[in-house]
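User: Run a structure prediction on this.
Assistant: Running it now.
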Amino acid sequence: MPTTSRWLGHKDGGALAMKTYGHLRDQHSVTMAEKVRFAENEQAESDEAKARYSFHWCESHNPLEIFWGQANEQVRLVPDDDFRKAAEKALERAVKSVELTSSQKLAAEFVEHAPKAMLIDLLGKVRQMTTLST
């Protein structure tokens, strides 16, 4: 803040800038802190997510299985580039990286255009084990 204040021509050492904009720094810090993930936590989340499936779609060589599994999973189990390639194969179009954050939209688009038999096959293979008992 003191440096920015000097750039703006303030002579108060940053007091006015802190008073005016200081709260933004706190909000930004909290927002960024919420995004921090530690590797051991990510690994535990990933292991927990994988354990929910009887079929390990994330290790499949079938792009449709990878796409469908990741599109319906909150935890990222495959790298973004692999998910994007699988999505492009499934949707038969180019998929922008930003679209990967809306994986449910991608899944909905796939459901609209995929043959019913393909959907039934994917639903039978790639589903969480908790749904197997219902």
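The mean pLDDT is 84.
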